[in-house]
Amino acid sequence: MELKRPQTQTQVAILSFTCFSLFILTVGLDDQVQAVLPPPTTKASGGERYVQMRAGAAFKIAVFADLHFGENAWSDWGPDHDVNSVKVMNTVLDNETPTDFVVCLGDVITANNFLIANATLYWDQAISPTKSRNIPWASVFGNHDDAPFVWPMEWFSAPGIPPLICPAVNSTYSGEEACSFRGTQRIELMKHDIEHDLLSYSSNGPKDLWPSISNYVIQVSSSGFLKKKKKKVDPKSPVVYLYFLDSGGGSYPGVISNAQAEWFQKKSEEINPNSSVPELIFWHIPSQAYKNVAPQFGNGIDQPCVGLINKEPVASQEAELGIMDLLVKRPSVKAVFVGHNHGLDWCCPYEKLWLCYARHTGYGGYGDWPKGARIIEITQQPFSIKSWIRMEDGVVHSRVTLSP
Fold this sequence. Notes:
By secondary structure, the protein is an alpha/beta fold. It has one domain: Purple Acid Phosphatase, chain A, domain 2. 23% of the residues lie in helices and 20% in strands. The protein has 8 helices and 15 strands. The strands form 3 sheets. A 7-stranded mixed sheet has the order 1-5-8-9-10-12-11. It has a 6-stranded mixed sheet with strand order 4-3-2-13-14-15. Strands 6-7 form a two-stranded antiparallel sheet. The longest helix is centred in the N-terminal third of the chain and has 19 residues. The radius of gyration is 20 Å and the shape is globular. GO terms for molecular function: hydrolase activity, acting on ester bonds. Keywords: Membrane, Transmembrane, Transmembrane helix. One of its GO terms (cellular component) is cytoplasm. InterPro entries: Calcineurin-like_PHP, Metallo-depent_PP-like, PAP14/16/28/29.
């Protein structure tokens, strides 16, 4: 979604370092670090990376959507929003201890607001609550993560365009590149995420799908022991597949292309040929199918949909190019999770699967609705996928069973 406020670039460099330093002081010293060790960087038989369930425990995923770090860094409300967003994530992770995995569901940063050299600083701030707890994560891109830089009107008012300061300390860019206004690129963000963080399970995805970047699969594997059956199982045996798709926006149209749909079809048939393993799908901008099941705007949320806020119409992708047709034909696909609409948090049944929104997690971006995060819980025995919303004040609501 488009933001109501543009962002300037003048004092961003100085203030981004200031905010980053304050952030380290307030968050980096978190003494409530979870005793959750990162899973091994290994691959399943199909070549996909996997995270392993803990013996005798459910596998819990926290979904953080639309964090929008880096807005209005020259004013008070921008940095304050980033601090408050960190508090939301800390609250969620503290209340949902232990969390096994985090999904950053797009619009982690607002790239149209700052120089490219500052993008990774804001990205690191957004990831820090997760990283400080040794929780692995994966991310998909939204329409603001690499949005073109927007020239703010403040630059052209008296006393004129202020001097630019382009930081070179700890920067992978040259001075000229750091001062670039071309906008942050998806591939640069993903490279930073992958190369600088061992806990990141994000991936560039197949090059033939670029400029669509974040297309990949992660396998949730068995703990290796089924308590009730009292028998060992292959620890690499899949319990659930997590698919991540780049829904575009920002530097190119907001769509999931036919090429991505074909990739999903080929990949899913390769690693899950009989649809015997449940599958969950994550992308940022809702498909047009969300419009078909959306509760009537302004009239609350009635069954069979489950949720709390219904404050705006669905803002969907620009076109349907095949992905939904494939998903509804696979009985293994249990749910799709999206962000983008800050004023929606419902889950509604569609054909034989569920279409779900996350909850607006960050204080950045439009809307003043209370913040929170969607939680997904996967239990192996008996198998189930359940979900709920955890709010910034600790309250839980909108519990739903997505697969018995």
